[in-house]
């Protein structure tokens, strides 16, 4: 990921602010597959759509050719997402130029979708890939939030998150055998750890024992607390409506949630965003829900809204293969590759309408990764961020969501993804998810977590 420039480029450098009449007409296929909240949208917790439009795909050098970011593809994709009923989007300064791309799109779409018809979450604190490129100082946090508002063309944010908080906080060192299984052991989840530990033992190693809730472990924790206090100030001013954190390791995110609630000003965080923890290889996020909901800090406690990100686990479940930089254990990558081979062979031998053998791993991963974003699954109402670079990816995400709805016998007038075909597709994708999960378990990598931040960060 390139380092964002020190000076913002002109918004117009990402394309002109054109009229809606100059855009192609992209029609939705059927109606919205969930009950749509009526504007004005003011309550993220109650009104957030099951799927969230993820802006990380509009970062230079990430998932798209650079010329894609200077085209109208993002405008068309966001317009179609809004038309389907996706009403929340996510970005970050670190995903440069995502905030500019989305800001241009929102300005173009304003006549059709005014500010009160959607909600925006962005992040602050991370401005490059290395630890040295984080800045959680209160001054930079406020400047970053105001700068994001300017880029996006809005006067307030529905959510502001400290980006990848584990890079700054004083995460307990885990120099023990099978450290990657500690998060699973902390909640008693089955895993292939060679060292037997009780949940209480694992929680102590991770710093999440109940008695450790208020413990400030060092200067990193102080920086996190100072940054959160600034975000709460901005919330009181009306610039931010919800305050939260994002990151990967669930135990550390949980520790920070408890730390914030147990120290001045004793206010609970509103949002926790975690990625790659509700996928085929790891179902830890729904398992951790009870711990995130467990009260700490007194009568003011309200549990945070959990947001699930990266159902493809940062490209691990791409049919092209995991990117070279992926932090996953080599055995996890190998198990994913073997699962892909089996799924593709099955898809070719047993064709099912709606499943592309060349996209079978991604389709299965999306199916597995957004479970719980609707009515089904153990992770109910756990809204999922999905990167949607173009209109085809928007249609695909909605289609998979409709297939998930088939389990609940939900149907919406005019939907093309309902009925007997949807039930067949659901059963096939469910079977594929079980095949892939079995490979993870056979390799002993289910619920195995990688280190974040990495040692070389």
UniProtKB/TrEMBL annotation:
<keyword id="KW-0560">Oxidoreductase</keyword>
<dbReference type="GO" id="GO:0047816">
    <property type="term" value="F:D-arabinose 1-dehydrogenase (NAD+) activity"/>
</dbReference>
<dbReference type="InterPro" id="IPR036812">
    <property type="entry name" value="NAD(P)_OxRdtase_dom_sf"/>
</dbReference>
<dbReference type="InterPro" id="IPR020471">
    <property type="entry name" value="AKR"/>
</dbReference>
<dbReference type="GO" id="GO:0070485">
    <property type="term" value="P:dehydro-D-arabinono-1,4-lactone biosynthetic process"/>
</dbReference>
<feature type="domain" description="NADP-dependent oxidoreductase">
    <location>
        <begin position="57"/>
        <end position="408"/>
    </location>
</feature>
<protein>
    <submittedName>
        <fullName>D-arabinose 1-dehydrogenase (NAD(+))</fullName>
        <ecNumber>1.1.1.116</ecNumber>
    </submittedName>
</protein>
<dbReference type="InterPro" id="IPR023210">
    <property type="entry name" value="NADP_OxRdtase_dom"/>
</dbReference>
<dbReference type="Pfam" id="PF00248">
    <property type="entry name" value="Aldo_ket_red"/>
</dbReference>
<dbReference type="GO" id="GO:0005829">
    <property type="term" value="C:cytosol"/>
</dbReference>
